[in-house]
Each structure stands twice: as structure tokens, then as C-alpha cells.
Amino acid sequence: MKKKIKIYLFNPYPSLGGVDTTLKRFLLSLDSNFEIEYLSLKKAENFNKLNIKNTVIEASSTFKAFFKIYKIFKEERNKKKIFFSTQYFVNVWSVIFIKLILKGKLFIYEVLPVDYFKYHNNLKERIKNIILKIFVKITYRHADIVASCSRELSNGLSKYVNKKVFTIYNPCFEKKVLKKRNYKKGQKIQILNIARFESQKDHFTLLNAVNYSNLKKKIILNLVGYGKNLEKMREYIKKNKINARIFTKENKLNKFYRSNDLYICTSVFEGLPTTVVEAASFGMPVISSNFKTGSKEIFLSGKAGFLFKVGDYKHLSKILMKFYDNPKIFFSKANICKNNLYRFSIKKNTDLFRKLINKLV
User: Fold this and answer.
1) Which region, left, alpha or beta, applies to residue 122 given φ > 0 means left and ψ of -120 to 50 means alpha?
2) Predicted pLDDT at 271
3) What residue spans define the domains of the chain?
4) 24 pLDDT exceeds 70?
5) Which DSSP letter does residue 127 get?
6) Region for residue 186 given its phi and psi (left: phi exceeds 0; alpha: psi -120 to 50; beta: otherwise)
7) Among 31, 91, 22, 20, which Cα is nearest to 361's?
8) To which H or E segment does residue 137 belong?
9) Can you tell me the distance from the alpha carbon of 110 to that of 123, in angstroms, rounded to the nearest whole number?
């Protein structure tokens, strides 16, 4: 009997976000010749009921976890074994422990731009990011395969680490979907945002834009997510009397895409946001901050959507007024976007993932 190819995926903090959905689609696209073990620091709820073993590593940090992962990988008798990891703070240790020490096959996938390192909340985070960025430059070139979720990210990372970086878009587009709700000029605007309530997603730019706008009473915000800024957001909404609804326990998102008029993404930085592509597949007009990386890529440099400078709530407010006055322009761009989503198709990008994985066998 032919022995299966063993793949270890290490994602320390699994959640229900876009990264985990991407990883899930990559792994489920592999055929029965592969045996997959998902390593994490907490249970991977998103992988329940799947034929994938989830091993929870008992460790207080990613770095400490690698001493146990080192042992697991070393003791695996299968000669055909591949280690797969994602995100800078994991990938650098993957290179050191799996590639440089154990000489194993390593595939790393990056979902954040190199610009990510300039964002920090305090001195400790700043120093940590400086060190991590140096480690990325030193280590990434040793990985067998490096890939990322957008072309702009791949180009920037490739220049920084002096190594070819493949682009595998988030496999998040399946088909064009017909929306039920049709917005008409002068109606109240149902605005949707789906994102973790964290500083990176910058919900306060959206809240500030609505509060600043003359359309405040004409806007209904629907915010879907969870995270540490939840209470601050609720306080702001209450204080400023914004018409907003918050949904914290929703994982079936199609009903939101169908029932809202406009999708807004206010992120400070991203790799390539899955929810924006999903919203566009429903024909929703999308307004997005011009974060690094992915927004210009999705919207064809503005031909397929409206962009505003990161954090510029006044500009966002003006775009909202433009939507209210002339929604036809927005739906025209939404149609262009919808017709160019094939780049993010599930099949196209999972096929590329399998092709690259098979290079390591």
C-alpha cells in the first residue's frame, strides 16, 4: 500500500476569520494521498467534523510550541512530509526549526504586507516588530516555497527577502450571486462591515464618517464580528446616537450580503480581505480604504470600486453622500468588479496550491 504524504499545518491561534477559511479550502482541496495534521495552541473549531487531525500543543507561546513541534516532526517516520505555516511570527520559527535544523520541506504562506511591521501600539511592540522584520529578511529565503495572498504583497515581499514569492489569492470566489435587495436613490442606506473588532480593522473611521455625515439619520450600520474593541464601539454608538446593529455570533454571512446596500472596509492594513471579494460577488458596491495590500488589486485601481485614504473619515463621508445622490455610478463599478472576480476563484487558487505542494513531494 502506497504511504500517504504527511502535511503538518501550524496555525497557533485558529479563529473563524478569512485566514482560517483560506487554510481550510487549501487543505480540503488535497486528495486522499495526503494525510493532514493541524497543529495549534487552541482547538481549531473551524475544522470540526473534518477528516483532519487537530493536535493542540500545550505551550504559552508560538516560540515555545516549536520545541514540541520539532519533536513531532522529527519523530514522524514518513519520509514524504511537508510543513506548512502562515504569518510572519510563525513562519520565521518554521524556517529555523523545520528547514534549517531538521532539513524538512517547508511551504510558508504570508497574508500581511511588509508594511505591517510599522504598526505598533507601544515601544515594546515597536521593538518586537523591528526584530521580527530582520528575522524575516534573514530566514524567508531558506524556505522551499514562499507564497502570499496578493500580487502586490508578493512583489513587496520578494524584493525584501530576495526570493521568488508566488501569488495564491484567497480562494473565496465561487460564483456570482443575485441580490434580493435593490437600493433606490433616496432610501435609507444599509451599510455592512464584517471584520474583527480590532484596531487593524479601524471601525472608528467608519463610525466617525457616519457621525460626521449629513446622512447620519439616513444610515443603518450592520457590524458583524467580535474582538476587544466591542465595548468601545458600543459606547461610541450610544453616545453619538448612531443607528447601528452589532452581530457577534454570526458565521452564516450570505444573509448580510443579500440584505445590505453597501459594503465598507476601513482596514489599516490587510493581505487581501476575503469579505470584500465575497461582497462583490453579490454585486454589492464596495468602498474601501486604500490599505497595503490588495484593495487596488480587487478594485482594478479604482475602476471597480471607490477608495479613500486610510483613516480619512471626512473623505469617506463625502463618498457616502455621493452614493446617496448617485448610486448608479457605484452599481456600475460593482458590476465591473463582479465580472473580474475569476482571479479569486476557489478552483483556480486551490489548483495552484496543490501544484506547489506537489513540487515538494
Assistant:
1) beta
2) 86
3) 5-171+345-358, 189-343
4) yes
5) H
6) left
7) 31
8) helix 123-139
9) 25
The grid cell for 78 is 514518513
For residues 279 and 286, is the Cβ–Cβ distance under 8 A? yes
Which stretch of 46-55, 222-231, 304-313, 335-344 has the lowest confidence by average pLDDT? 46-55
Q: All 3 cell numbers of residue 178?
A: 443575485
Is the backbone of residue 355 left (phi > 0), alpha (psi -120 to 50) or beta?
alpha
Domain 5-171+345-358 shares a fold with domain 189-343: yes
pLDDT digits (tens, 9 = 90+) for 266-298: 999 998 899 999 999 999 999 999 998 888 899
Specify whether the CB–CB gap between 222 and 192 falls below 8 A. yes
Element housing 125 (H / E): helix 123-139
In the CATH hierarchy, which fold is given to the domain comprising 189-343? Answer: Rossmann fold (3.40.50)
Return the number of other C-beta atoms located less than 10 Å from residue 80's C-beta. Answer: 16
The CATH-assigned architecture of domain 5-171+345-358 is 3-Layer(aba) Sandwich (3.40)
Closest CA to 109 of 240, 272, 228, 261: 272
- Report percent pLDDT > 70 for the chain: 98
- In this prediction the pTM is 0.90
The confidence score (pLDDT) of residue 330 equals 95
**Averaged pLDDT, 199-215:** 96
- Which cell numbers hold the place of 114? 511588509
Q: Report how many helices (DSSP H) and strands (DSSP E) the chain contains, helices first.
A: 13, 13
Q: Which DSSP state fits 98?
A: I
Grid cell of 303 as nine digits: 475602476
Q: Give dist(CA 104, CA 101) in Å, integer.
A: 8
Query: pLDDT tens digits, residue range 152-186?
Result: 999 999 999 999 999 999 998 888 777 666 787 88
At 109 the three-state DSSP class reads strand
- E strands, 202-297, where? 219-224, 244-247, 262-265, 286-289
Residue 271 is placed in which grid cell? 493581505
Within 10 A of 251 (CB to CB), how many other CB atoms are there? 8
